[in-house]
Protein backbone atom coordinates (compact mmCIF):
# COMPACT_ATOMS: atom_id res chain seq x y z
CA UNK A 1 0.00 0.00 0.00
CA UNK A 2 2.05 2.91 -1.33
CA UNK A 3 1.15 6.58 -1.17
CA UNK A 4 0.49 7.94 -4.64
CA UNK A 5 -1.17 11.32 -4.04
CA UNK A 6 -2.07 13.74 -1.25
CA UNK A 7 -5.02 16.06 -1.85
CA UNK A 8 -5.80 19.12 0.24
CA UNK A 9 -9.09 20.93 0.58
CA UNK A 10 -10.75 23.39 2.90
CA UNK A 11 -13.84 22.81 5.00
CA UNK A 12 -16.18 25.37 6.52
CA UNK A 13 -18.74 23.83 8.86
CA UNK A 14 -21.16 26.31 10.52
CA UNK A 15 -21.68 26.06 14.28
CA UNK A 16 -25.12 25.86 15.85
CA UNK A 17 -24.28 28.94 17.93
CA UNK A 18 -21.10 31.05 18.21
CA UNK A 19 -18.32 29.48 20.30
CA UNK A 20 -17.06 32.01 22.85
CA UNK A 21 -14.09 31.73 25.19
CA UNK A 22 -11.73 34.12 26.96
CA UNK A 23 -9.46 33.81 23.89
CA UNK A 24 -11.77 34.00 20.85
CA UNK A 25 -15.27 33.95 19.35
CA UNK A 26 -15.87 31.65 16.37
CA UNK A 27 -18.91 31.05 14.17
CA UNK A 28 -17.73 28.06 12.13
CA UNK A 29 -15.13 25.30 11.97
CA UNK A 30 -12.48 26.37 9.46
CA UNK A 31 -10.25 23.42 8.61
CA UNK A 32 -7.97 21.81 6.06
CA UNK A 33 -8.92 18.31 4.90
CA UNK A 34 -6.07 15.93 4.03
CA UNK A 35 -6.84 12.98 1.75
CA UNK A 36 -4.04 10.45 1.24
CA UNK A 37 -4.45 8.11 -1.74
CA UNK A 38 -2.69 4.77 -2.28
CA UNK A 39 -1.98 2.39 -5.14
CA UNK A 40 -4.43 -0.13 -3.65
CA UNK A 41 -7.35 2.29 -3.84
CA UNK A 42 -7.49 2.84 -0.08
CA UNK A 43 -7.94 6.42 1.13
CA UNK A 44 -6.99 7.95 4.46
CA UNK A 45 -8.57 11.10 5.87
CA UNK A 46 -7.21 13.72 8.26
CA UNK A 47 -8.22 17.19 9.36
CA UNK A 48 -6.52 20.27 10.82
CA UNK A 49 -8.52 23.25 12.09
CA UNK A 50 -7.11 26.76 11.91
CA UNK A 51 -6.50 27.74 15.55
CA UNK A 52 -4.06 30.63 15.29
CA UNK A 53 -4.62 31.82 18.86
CA UNK A 54 -3.42 28.48 20.26
CA UNK A 55 -1.23 26.62 17.75
CA UNK A 56 -0.26 29.65 15.63
CA UNK A 57 -1.62 28.02 12.48
CA UNK A 58 -4.04 29.26 9.82
CA UNK A 59 -5.50 27.34 6.89
CA UNK A 60 -2.88 28.96 4.66
CA UNK A 61 0.05 27.88 6.84
CA UNK A 62 -1.35 24.35 7.21
CA UNK A 63 -1.66 24.03 3.44
CA UNK A 64 1.85 25.40 2.92
CA UNK A 65 3.38 23.06 5.49
CA UNK A 66 1.75 19.95 4.01
CA UNK A 67 2.00 20.76 0.31
CA UNK A 68 5.48 22.23 0.41
CA UNK A 69 7.27 20.24 3.09
CA UNK A 70 5.52 17.24 4.63
CA UNK A 71 3.66 15.85 1.64
CA UNK A 72 6.62 15.50 -0.76
CA UNK A 73 8.48 13.41 1.85
CA UNK A 74 5.65 10.87 1.94
CA UNK A 75 4.96 10.30 -1.75
CA UNK A 76 5.96 6.79 -2.74
CA UNK A 77 6.19 5.72 0.89
CA UNK A 78 4.76 2.36 1.91
CA UNK A 79 2.23 2.06 4.75
CA UNK A 80 4.08 -1.09 5.83
CA UNK A 81 6.93 1.25 6.75
CA UNK A 82 4.59 3.06 9.10
CA UNK A 83 7.05 4.21 11.75
CA UNK A 84 9.34 5.59 9.05
CA UNK A 85 6.44 7.58 7.62
CA UNK A 86 5.69 9.06 11.04
CA UNK A 87 9.35 9.99 11.42
CA UNK A 88 9.26 11.74 8.07
CA UNK A 89 6.26 13.79 9.20
CA UNK A 90 7.80 14.93 12.47
CA UNK A 91 11.25 15.71 11.12
CA UNK A 92 9.95 17.61 8.11
CA UNK A 93 9.74 20.93 9.95
CA UNK A 94 9.46 22.40 13.44
CA UNK A 95 6.16 23.25 15.14
CA UNK A 96 3.12 23.18 12.78
CA UNK A 97 1.48 20.64 15.07
CA UNK A 98 -1.98 20.77 13.47
CA UNK A 99 -0.58 20.19 9.99
CA UNK A 100 1.37 17.20 11.30
CA UNK A 101 -1.69 15.91 13.14
CA UNK A 102 -3.88 15.98 10.03
CA UNK A 103 -1.33 13.98 8.03
CA UNK A 104 -0.77 11.54 10.90
CA UNK A 105 -4.49 10.91 11.28
CA UNK A 106 -4.73 10.00 7.59
CA UNK A 107 -1.71 7.69 7.92
CA UNK A 108 -3.14 5.96 10.99
CA UNK A 109 -6.43 5.58 9.11
CA UNK A 110 -4.57 3.82 6.28
CA UNK A 111 -2.47 1.70 8.66
CA UNK A 112 -5.60 0.35 10.36
CA UNK A 113 -7.22 -0.25 6.96
CA UNK A 114 -4.09 -2.12 5.90
CA UNK A 115 -4.63 -4.50 8.82
CA UNK A 116 -8.41 -4.71 8.36
CA UNK A 117 -9.43 -3.40 11.80
CA UNK A 118 -10.90 -0.24 13.29
CA UNK A 119 -8.23 2.10 14.60
CA UNK A 120 -9.14 1.70 18.28
CA UNK A 121 -8.39 -2.03 18.06
CA UNK A 122 -5.03 -1.38 16.42
CA UNK A 123 -4.23 1.04 19.28
CA UNK A 124 -5.15 -1.40 22.02
CA UNK A 125 -8.82 -2.29 22.06
CA UNK A 126 -11.40 -1.08 24.51
CA UNK A 127 -15.18 -0.69 24.49
CA UNK A 128 -16.06 1.43 21.43
CA UNK A 129 -18.39 3.87 23.16
CA UNK A 130 -17.76 7.16 24.93
CA UNK A 131 -19.73 9.90 26.63
CA UNK A 132 -18.59 13.49 26.16
CA UNK A 133 -19.28 16.71 27.99
CA UNK A 134 -20.41 19.82 26.11
CA UNK A 135 -19.10 23.37 26.21
CA UNK A 136 -21.19 26.21 27.58
CA UNK A 137 -19.70 29.30 25.94
CA UNK A 138 -18.90 32.36 28.04
CA UNK A 139 -21.84 34.77 27.73
CA UNK A 140 -24.41 36.69 29.74
CA UNK A 141 -25.39 34.80 32.90
CA UNK A 142 -28.98 34.15 31.78
CA UNK A 143 -27.79 32.87 28.41
CA UNK A 144 -25.32 30.46 29.99
CA UNK A 145 -28.01 29.12 32.34
CA UNK A 146 -30.37 28.60 29.41
CA UNK A 147 -27.63 26.85 27.44
CA UNK A 148 -26.85 24.62 30.41
CA UNK A 149 -30.49 23.61 30.86
CA UNK A 150 -30.78 22.92 27.13
CA UNK A 151 -27.72 20.65 27.37
CA UNK A 152 -29.36 18.70 30.20
CA UNK A 153 -32.48 18.25 28.07
CA UNK A 154 -30.27 16.73 25.35
CA UNK A 155 -28.81 14.20 27.76
CA UNK A 156 -25.47 15.76 28.77
CA UNK A 157 -24.32 14.93 32.28
CA UNK A 158 -21.10 16.99 32.25
CA UNK A 159 -20.82 20.67 31.31
CA UNK A 160 -17.61 22.54 30.54
CA UNK A 161 -18.25 26.12 31.62
CA UNK A 162 -16.14 28.72 29.82
CA UNK A 163 -14.97 31.56 32.06
CA UNK A 164 -11.82 33.69 32.37
CA UNK A 165 -12.94 37.17 31.33
CA UNK A 166 -13.48 38.78 34.74
CA UNK A 167 -13.32 36.92 38.07
CA UNK A 168 -16.31 38.64 39.66
CA UNK A 169 -18.57 38.03 36.67
CA UNK A 170 -17.15 34.53 36.27
CA UNK A 171 -18.21 33.70 39.83
CA UNK A 172 -21.73 34.90 39.07
CA UNK A 173 -21.80 32.70 35.95
CA UNK A 174 -20.66 29.58 37.83
CA UNK A 175 -23.03 30.18 40.75
CA UNK A 176 -26.00 30.60 38.45
CA UNK A 177 -25.24 27.52 36.36
CA UNK A 178 -24.56 25.48 39.49
CA UNK A 179 -27.87 26.52 41.01
CA UNK A 180 -29.70 25.54 37.83
CA UNK A 181 -28.13 22.09 37.34
CA UNK A 182 -26.97 21.04 40.82
CA UNK A 183 -27.34 17.28 41.25
CA UNK A 184 -28.07 16.77 37.56
CA UNK A 185 -24.75 17.56 35.88
CA UNK A 186 -21.07 17.75 36.74
CA UNK A 187 -19.33 21.08 36.20
CA UNK A 188 -15.91 21.56 34.65
CA UNK A 189 -14.51 25.10 34.61
CA UNK A 190 -12.24 26.33 31.82
CA UNK A 191 -10.63 29.75 32.30
CA UNK A 192 -8.61 29.55 29.03
CA UNK A 193 -5.58 31.31 30.60
CA UNK A 194 -7.79 34.24 31.65
CA UNK A 195 -6.90 34.60 35.33
CA UNK A 196 -3.81 35.49 37.30
CA UNK A 197 -2.68 32.89 39.86
CA UNK A 198 -3.99 34.95 42.77
CA UNK A 199 -7.30 35.59 41.02
CA UNK A 200 -7.68 31.86 40.41
CA UNK A 201 -7.00 30.93 44.03
CA UNK A 202 -9.31 33.64 45.36
CA UNK A 203 -12.13 32.68 42.99
CA UNK A 204 -11.89 28.96 43.70
CA UNK A 205 -11.73 29.49 47.45
CA UNK A 206 -14.95 31.49 47.20
CA UNK A 207 -16.70 28.75 45.23
CA UNK A 208 -15.39 25.91 47.38
CA UNK A 209 -16.45 27.71 50.58
CA UNK A 210 -19.96 27.92 49.15
CA UNK A 211 -20.02 24.17 48.49
CA UNK A 212 -19.57 24.52 44.74
CA UNK A 213 -17.04 21.80 43.90
CA UNK A 214 -16.30 21.47 40.19
CA UNK A 215 -14.73 18.31 38.81
CA UNK A 216 -11.79 20.34 37.58
CA UNK A 217 -10.42 23.79 36.77
CA UNK A 218 -8.75 23.96 33.36
CA UNK A 219 -5.78 26.20 32.48
CA UNK A 220 -6.51 29.05 34.91
CA UNK A 221 -3.29 30.98 34.09
CA UNK A 222 -1.12 31.81 31.09
CA UNK A 223 0.33 28.83 29.24
CA UNK A 224 3.95 29.69 30.00
CA UNK A 225 3.37 30.38 33.71
CA UNK A 226 4.15 26.97 35.22
CA UNK A 227 5.06 28.58 38.54
CA UNK A 228 1.65 30.25 38.61
CA UNK A 229 -0.04 26.99 37.68
CA UNK A 230 1.76 25.23 40.53
CA UNK A 231 0.76 28.08 42.88
CA UNK A 232 -2.91 27.46 42.08
CA UNK A 233 -2.67 23.66 42.20
CA UNK A 234 -1.12 23.73 45.67
CA UNK A 235 -3.77 26.04 47.10
CA UNK A 236 -7.16 24.88 45.81
CA UNK A 237 -9.15 21.72 46.52
CA UNK A 238 -10.44 21.48 42.95
CA UNK A 239 -8.19 19.40 40.66
CA UNK A 240 -6.32 21.64 38.21
CA UNK A 241 -6.04 20.54 34.60
CA UNK A 242 -3.41 21.80 32.19
CA UNK A 243 -4.21 22.42 28.52
CA UNK A 244 -2.22 25.03 26.58
CA UNK A 245 0.83 24.56 28.82
CA UNK A 246 1.43 21.06 27.45
CA UNK A 247 1.81 20.34 23.74
CA UNK A 248 4.16 17.37 23.85
CA UNK A 249 5.90 14.74 26.03
CA UNK A 250 8.79 16.94 27.21
CA UNK A 251 6.42 19.60 28.51
CA UNK A 252 4.37 16.96 30.33
CA UNK A 253 7.44 15.45 31.96
CA UNK A 254 8.47 18.89 33.22
CA UNK A 255 4.94 19.56 34.49
CA UNK A 256 4.95 16.27 36.38
CA UNK A 257 8.40 17.01 37.80
CA UNK A 258 7.13 20.34 39.13
CA UNK A 259 3.83 18.83 40.31
CA UNK A 260 2.22 21.84 38.70
CA UNK A 261 -1.14 20.25 37.79
CA UNK A 262 -3.33 17.25 38.55
CA UNK A 263 -4.74 16.39 35.11
CA UNK A 264 -3.58 16.88 31.52
CA UNK A 265 -5.78 17.64 28.51
CA UNK A 266 -4.51 15.79 25.43
CA UNK A 267 -5.41 17.25 22.03
CA UNK A 268 -4.18 15.85 18.74
CA UNK A 269 -3.72 19.33 17.28
CA UNK A 270 -1.35 20.29 20.09
CA UNK A 271 0.63 17.06 20.15
CA UNK A 272 1.14 16.82 16.40
CA UNK A 273 -1.07 13.78 16.02
CA UNK A 274 -1.73 10.37 17.48
CA UNK A 275 1.85 9.19 18.00
CA UNK A 276 2.71 11.90 20.53
CA UNK A 277 -0.79 11.78 22.03
CA UNK A 278 -0.23 8.10 22.77
CA UNK A 279 3.08 8.98 24.43
CA UNK A 280 1.35 11.65 26.53
CA UNK A 281 -1.29 9.19 27.73
CA UNK A 282 1.32 6.56 28.53
CA UNK A 283 3.58 9.01 30.41
CA UNK A 284 0.61 10.28 32.41
CA UNK A 285 -0.47 6.72 33.15
CA UNK A 286 2.97 5.80 34.49
CA UNK A 287 2.75 8.71 36.94
CA UNK A 288 -0.86 8.16 37.97
CA UNK A 289 -2.07 11.35 36.28
CA UNK A 290 -5.57 11.22 34.79
CA UNK A 291 -6.09 12.60 31.28
CA UNK A 292 -8.80 14.32 29.36
CA UNK A 293 -9.09 13.80 25.63
CA UNK A 294 -10.06 17.13 24.11
CA UNK A 295 -10.37 18.85 20.77
CA UNK A 296 -10.14 22.26 19.21
CA UNK A 297 -13.08 23.40 17.11
CA UNK A 298 -12.95 20.39 14.80
CA UNK A 299 -15.43 18.40 12.77
CA UNK A 300 -16.16 14.69 13.13
CA UNK A 301 -13.12 13.71 11.03
CA UNK A 302 -10.28 14.49 13.43
CA UNK A 303 -12.50 14.14 16.50
CA UNK A 304 -13.14 10.55 15.44
CA UNK A 305 -9.40 9.87 15.61
CA UNK A 306 -9.29 11.30 19.13
CA UNK A 307 -12.25 9.10 20.08
CA UNK A 308 -10.41 5.99 18.86
CA UNK A 309 -7.46 6.94 21.06
CA UNK A 310 -9.73 7.56 24.08
CA UNK A 311 -11.23 4.10 23.70
CA UNK A 312 -7.80 2.48 23.37
CA UNK A 313 -6.41 4.28 26.46
CA UNK A 314 -9.59 4.36 28.55
CA UNK A 315 -7.67 3.33 31.67
CA UNK A 316 -5.93 6.71 31.82
CA UNK A 317 -8.19 8.92 29.66
CA UNK A 318 -11.03 9.30 32.12
CA UNK A 319 -12.43 12.67 30.99
CA UNK A 320 -13.85 13.16 27.49
CA UNK A 321 -14.34 16.57 25.88
CA UNK A 322 -15.02 15.71 22.25
CA UNK A 323 -17.99 17.98 21.64
CA UNK A 324 -16.78 19.54 18.37
CA UNK A 325 -19.22 17.56 16.18
CA UNK A 326 -22.11 18.33 18.56
CA UNK A 327 -21.38 22.06 18.22
CA UNK A 328 -21.46 21.80 14.41
CA UNK A 329 -24.68 22.40 12.50
CA UNK A 330 -23.88 19.52 10.12
CA UNK A 331 -21.57 16.54 9.74
CA UNK A 332 -19.42 16.65 6.59
CA UNK A 333 -18.31 13.01 6.87
CA UNK A 334 -20.15 9.95 5.63
CA UNK A 335 -19.35 6.89 7.72
CA UNK A 336 -16.98 6.83 10.65
CA UNK A 337 -17.83 7.52 14.27
CA UNK A 338 -21.43 8.22 15.19
CA UNK A 339 -22.07 11.34 17.27
CA UNK A 340 -25.46 11.48 18.97
CA UNK A 341 -25.61 14.17 21.64
CA UNK A 342 -23.27 13.09 24.44
CA UNK A 343 -22.89 9.60 22.96
CA UNK A 344 -20.01 8.62 20.65
CA UNK A 345 -19.96 5.17 19.06
CA UNK A 346 -17.18 3.69 16.94
CA UNK A 347 -18.03 1.08 14.33
CA UNK A 348 -16.26 -2.05 13.08
CA UNK A 349 -15.15 -0.62 9.73
CA UNK A 350 -11.38 -0.64 9.17
CA UNK A 351 -9.50 2.54 10.04
CA UNK A 352 -11.69 5.50 10.88
CA UNK A 353 -14.47 4.11 8.70
CA UNK A 354 -14.95 7.37 6.80
CA UNK A 355 -16.33 6.82 3.29
CA UNK A 356 -16.40 10.37 1.95
CA UNK A 357 -16.42 14.02 3.00
CA UNK A 358 -18.85 16.60 1.63
CA UNK A 359 -18.45 20.33 1.19
CA UNK A 360 -14.72 20.27 0.48
CA UNK A 361 -13.27 23.14 -1.53
CA UNK A 362 -10.18 21.84 -3.36
CA UNK A 363 -6.94 23.71 -2.76
CA UNK A 364 -5.25 24.64 -6.00
CA UNK A 365 -1.50 24.60 -5.53
Q: How would you characterize the overall build of this protein?
A:
This protein is an alpha/beta fold and 365 residues long. It has two domains: 3-116, 2-Layer Sandwich (Enolase-like, domain 1), CATH 3.30.390.10; 121-355, TIM Barrel, CATH 3.20.20.120. Helix content is 40%, strand content 24%. It is built from 14 helices and 17 strands. The chain has helices at residues 52-55, 59-74, 82-91, 97-114, 119-122, 141-153, 167-181, 197-209, 226-235, 249-258, 268-271, 274-286, 300-312, 324-327, and strands spanning 3-20, 25-38, 43-49, 129-131, 134-136, 158-162, 186-190, 216-218, 240-242, 263-266, 291-293, 317-320, 333-335, 338-340, 343-345, 354-357, 361-362. The strands form four sheets. It has an eight-stranded parallel sheet. It has a four-stranded antiparallel sheet with strand order 3-2-1-17. Helix 2 (59-74) packs across helix 4 (97-114), helix 3 runs antiparallel to helix 4 (97-114) and helix 7 (167-181) packs parallel to helix 8 (197-209). The longest helix has 18 residues, at 97-114. It starts with a strand and ends with a strand.
| Name of the level-1 CATH class of the largest domain | Alpha Beta
Strand content: 15-25%
Q: Mind describing the biggest β-sheet?
A: 8 strands, parallel
Rg, nearest Å: 20 Å
Number of domains: 2
> Which geometry do the CA atoms define?
globular
The average pLDDT value, as a whole number, equals 97
Span between N and C termini?
A: 25 Å
Contiguous low-pLDDT stretches (5 residues minimum) are none
The helicity comes to: 40-55%
User: Main sheet: which strands, in order across?
Assistant: 5-6-7-8-9-10-11-12
Q: Based on DSSP secondary structure assignment, what is the total number of beta strands?
A: 17
Q: By helix and strand content, what is the structural category? A: alpha/beta
